[in-house]
Design brief:
Elements: H1 12-26, E1 34-36, E2 43-48, E3 51-59, H2 63-70, H3 76-88, E4 94-104, H4 109-126, E5 129-137, E6 147-158, E7 173-178, H5 187-196, H6 214-218, H7 226-233, E8 240-243, H8 248-254, H9 274-281, H10 286-292, E9 297-303, H11 308-317, E10 323-324
Helix pairs in contact: 3-4, 8-10
């Protein structure tokens, strides 16, 4: 059987249509200080005096279901922070603080403490404060073992340092930062293809022959990119940045460049993590893989080709490889 996101229960078209409706509704609640709103990786608000606030919110998605089955919630806190701060920094904003929301059927402090501790550690790693949050015990809405996570991040960027993508031009280069694996997208498809139907693998199995369980591979926490990006921005002129989440490489990069431009991506120019070979073997075709997954690239920088040597030097100092994705 050929698996798609649609067959797994997730419609990317419905998501796009929903964003259009939200934009329409949000337009009545915006004022002259809203620089960019619904649809971007983060919203920008002009504070005046040369400062802009950037804000965003996101969750972890159905990766939660695998974490619950594996009895391993430890990495979800980092996932939650990463999904937000990685969005936030695409406009050049420095993360300031983070808030979390946990909704559950039954509040179990011992069970959820690793999540909160993971959130705190990830905030520290990202250079922002954990300012607060909300935990809601909602029996009847969630089953006793059920829960969901959401996060909210706010940052600041100075006028003149906002990265808009407006100066992207023909011949600019796309440079990728490696992912740590699947990150926190596409798990509804992963569950169908690898666990529930498809290959019907056990979370305790080691199908990649790496000496670690499938659960450990799938639950690898989402990488945190703020420290890397902030260091790069100090020395390299970056024209645009994209966090590669749902929608894959092409659609996420297209979100941050002018409409008149197209992309050329060489999908053979980097080595994919083995997990994607396994997903392909389960019946997910290449075209669908490109629409749904990051394929090993978690964040993309758009630069003038004259900046490549300098960027390579900066990334080398950070012990990061330079993965050219073509133009």
């Amino acid at each position: 059987m050929k698996w798609t996101y649609e067959k797994a229960g997730v419609s990317l078209k419905a998501a796009d249509d929903w964003v259009k409706l939200v934009k329409k509704a949000a337009s009545i609640a915006q004022d002259s200080r809203v620089v960019s709103g619904v649809g971007g990786f983060s919203g920008l608000y002009d504070l005046g005096k040369g400062l802009y606030l950037a804000a965003c919110c996101d969750g972890v998605g159905t990766k939660l279901e695998i974490a619950k089955k594996a009895g391993d919630l430890e990495g979800l806190g980092q996932d939650l922070v990463a999904m937000n701060v990685n969005d936030l920094i695409t406009c050049g904003a420095k993360p300031l603080f983070f808030l979390d929301y946990i909704a559950c059927g039954k509040l179990d402090s011992q069970r959820f403490y690793p999540v909160i501790y993971g959130i705190a550690k990830a905030c520290k790693e990202s250079g922002c404060a954990l300012l607060g949050g909300e935990t809601a015990e909602m029996p009847g809405t969630y089953p006793a073992e059920g829960f969901d996570l959401a996060g909210f991040a706010l940052g600041v960027v100075e006028d003149g340092r906002v990265i808009t993508g407006e100066d992207v031009s023909v011949g600019d280069l796309l440079v990728g930062l490696p992912s740590s694996g699947l990150h926190s997208n596409g798990f509804s498809l992963v569950r169908k293809a690898l666990l529930e139907e498809g290959l019907r693998l056990s979370l305790d199995s080691d199908p990649l022959n790496e000496g670690r369980s499938l659960a450990k591979v799938l639950l690898e926490p989402t990488r945190l990119y703020p420290k890397i990006v902030m260091a790069v921005l100090e020395k390299v002129k970056i024209k645009a940045m994209a966090h590669i989440t749902g929608g894959g490489l092409k659609d996420n990069i297209l979100r941050v460049i002018p409409d008149e431009f197209s992309l050329y991506l060489d999908y053979n120019s980097w080595r994919r993590p083995k997990i994607y070979d396994l997903i392909a073997r389960a019946g997910v075709e290449e075209e669908e893989m490109r629409k749904v997954f990051n394929l090993g690239i978690g964040f993309v920088l758009v630069i003038d080709k004259k900046e490549l040597s300098l960027l390579e030097d900066v990334l080398k100092g950070l012990k990061e490889p330079t993965l050219s994705l073509a133009r």
